[in-house]
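Hi, here's the filled form for the chain we discussed.

Project: internal
Contact: R.S.
Residues: 1061
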Amino acid sequence: MRKGAMKIMSSAARLRRVTTAVLTLAVLSPTAIWASHHSLPSVGKDVPRIPVRTLTLEDLTATAHPVDVLRTTRSGPGDATGRLGSAHGDTATAKRSPRAAPSLRSVQLTIALRADASSRLAEVRQLIRYLQAAGLSTQTGGWPPTTVWANGTAGQINELFDARLEEERGNGAAPIEVFATAPKLPATLAPLVEAVFARPSTRATAAVVAANQEATLRIPLQQRSATLVAQPAAVTAGGPPVACAAASAAAAAAGAHTPADIASHYNLTPLYASAAHTAVTVAIVEFEPFDPGDIASFQACYGTHASVTVVPVDGGVGPGVGSGRAAADIETVIATAPEANILVYEAPGDAGSIYDTYARIANDHAAQIVVSGWGICEPTARLASLPTLERPLFQRMALQGQTVLAASGDTGSAGCYNPPNGGNTAPAVLDPASQPEVVAVGGTSFAAADSADTSWRTGSGAGGGGISQIWPEPRYQQLVSSAPENSSAPCGAQQGSLCRQVPDISLLADPTHGYVVFFGGAWHATGGTALAAATLAGGIALVDRTCAAGPVGWIVPTLYRAAGSAAIVDITQGPNTDFTGVNSGEYAVRSGYDLATGLGYPNMADLQAWLCPPTAAPGAGTMTVTPNLVQTDSLTALSFRYQPPTGTGLINGEIDINVPGTWTLPSTQTGQAGFTTADAGIVLMSGNTIVLRAVSLPPGATVTITYGDTNGGSSARTPPTSQITTFAAQSAASATQSPLPLRQSPAVRVLTPGSSSAGEGTLLRVAGSDRIATAIAASQLAFPGSASARAVVLARSDTFPDALAGAPLAASVRGPLLLTPPTEVPANVLSEIQRVLPQGSPVFLLGGFAALSAQVEQQILNAGFVAHRIQGADRYETAVQIAYALGNPTTLLEVDGTNFPDAMSAAAAAIITHGALLLTDGDTLSAATRTFLSTHLGSTRFAIGGPAAHADPSSRAIVGTDRFATSVLVAQQFFTAPSAIGLASGAAFPDALVGGPISGTAGGPLVLVPPDGNLPDGTSGYFASVAPSVLNGWLFGGPKAVATTVADAAAQALVLLPPTN
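And the returned structure, exactly as it came back:
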């Protein structure tokens, strides 16, 4: 249906052609013609042949047509409205007078390939060879192709396909070629084909084929000289086209808007001032002719110089100047994007030519933007199988970075309503607007340029919208709340799922305050969702011309991500869109997404930042997987979440995930195990690799790929044996890049049943309300049983040196390290000592009476324990005394006693080496430490951190670029394949102090992590390297100490279940 409600300002002027304009007809045919000399394997005649799908007479006579059933006609203000005649029905009434097609009649054959043909190129080549061997000339578009066109005689086709072509006639005089019996192909080739249909070969097509048997049919844009202008003046730099006096007067008389008004209202003006990076081409789909003189007059008025080239498909639209609808589309694009190149694809408009038109556009790949103001209501299109045939074409365009837009219709909720030829008032939407890869553009109204849009429903039409009867709700629409009217019923979606909703976004369509265009020798005010789509197409062209990373491509998922931002303005006012008055007031406008206006209307300058963000290098970004712990030989669904680097996004990017062969093979087929979906991009398969292309993401956004999605498919089966599975992943931020591996690929731990319930494979957060409570929680973790410890080490809670040096002592005496204020022991600490320690057992007090007061010692004694104080004159001597208490350690680790960060990771290392910790006085040796070292010359010495290394140059230095890097170096030095690991914040010392003894005793390191933000590369890299050996881990400190995001990232890198608290 054609979407465009028109209000004619001057009916007195007669249609005429401007003779100064020149129109060039360019046949943009596919880019590859396969000649007979290609050395491809042949298919023998003895191979069994099986029927393939074809289109019936009723299918082939389904036509796209205009739906602007009412038009306001004025020769001046106050004239009455009138009704249009000559609207065509969806399906022409075919005259059943078949006769065999003459055997020598030239016939064009369209062979629509299945969506997976791109992964079966050897079979595609076989098919082409098979056709050529029978004497047919063949054409394909870009490679890999979506369609193969073949030309030959009816006799050749009948023999090759073991079928009978008959000639029928529809309402018009042109004959229609129909297969009276199902065409057949060899059993090896038939599964490649979605459908086959024929039409009389046009003279233009035949001439092109004859002249180009050995050559390409693409005509480069720079070779097209066609323009439809009469030497216009230059466009005003930095702004929209400025109307001449006649256009301005016409707009004022009708209450319509000039291009400047539209640019101001939708905030297009800043885009004109942006520097252009590339020329942009817009393809416009038309099923009626136009007068090139009208376009020339329009451009002369506005001073524009857009080039307009006609591309006939299947013979084009024939002679004539049309109704002005095509001219309005072309002029509206020019009014918004005056520097665009415009290709007008003209076709007869029957189902076969509709398919051929979109196939040509996809295969030519000459336009970055494709817009259609025509369509067929879904129930009719579905009978012709047109939507399923078209879907691979629109997917191809998305993969190629083409933005496709289509008008949603002008009859509100009744998409099939088309008087006088059809009064079907049932709720319905239009194809191709409902296609998931197409931007469905609805209609709005606004009076003044500075007023907000409202929904549109007047006597001349209403914005089309509703629920698809074919397509389930795409993942991207699940990013917003669905309209309350939506359900699974119309499209037969799986229980719990919904259907595709239309429109996606809306712009001005109300002809009462519409656009000013020129046709038939006069200026007219017009409207309709066709022009709303054309306006948005021009806006996207302005974005494309300034986007250095390439055309913005498939923008629909990004529109839904931008919902609620300044880039898309929600429409909350206006009438419902029940144009016929019989659909119970459907659909009402409301806050958020609705079926009247979709997401709202665009603020183009703000939307530009969403559509064309900065991009990073290939291989940048991070990917996580949930869940990352599963059981062997079980069914699961894995969600992979990719996030670009901060401040960057993707423009037609690519993400690849390799699924190892021990898992279910991924699939794009609904109902199959391993079914894979994504909330952005187009999912493809290359063997066992998930390939997500056409991914566009604004900064801060993520894309989620679900493997084993149960919404439309079944789960994936895990391997039968315990393992850690790494899913090798790579990314490219734009179509100009080749994907490179991510720095760290996601991994999943596969455990035997019962392992995870026993604690294996988890990262447990160990935390209390404060540092003292966290130490108690750590004690209860390490010593869960009553009286299970042999001693307790007690240190002051307000500073780190004594507790740090005491960590090896706690491990040696097999007891917890607890913290207390210097003056007295809190009740909860005393209670924990009484729980974990038998009466009469030793409690080691670290430091003198300034560190732990006499009252602290008395409390310990009063509780029935033996107090052992280890002290020195200062922190350095106390550390030496603790070293003596450990016996005669042969490994000594020196750390800065004046600052904690480098020191925190050393405790676990001292425990694993049965060593002692000594303190330096910054970058010098204290007297006590120097004396101890002089009496232990045979010991192995490590200096942890820069100050300690400077203090003892003869020691083995372990120094990183920062505290996190030093922590990793310590872990790498002492823990190459740990079975456990501890994590704590590198911004504060208490949690790391109590975590060191537990980690070290379990044979694992204590690694410092940032309190928030991203994990350092070195840290995540170490985690990934030890993940195969790590069975469990601990994160010491609560969410305020280490944020949940950091905990989750660490768990992902270690392939452990993240903390639940």
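Let me know if anything looks off before we file it.
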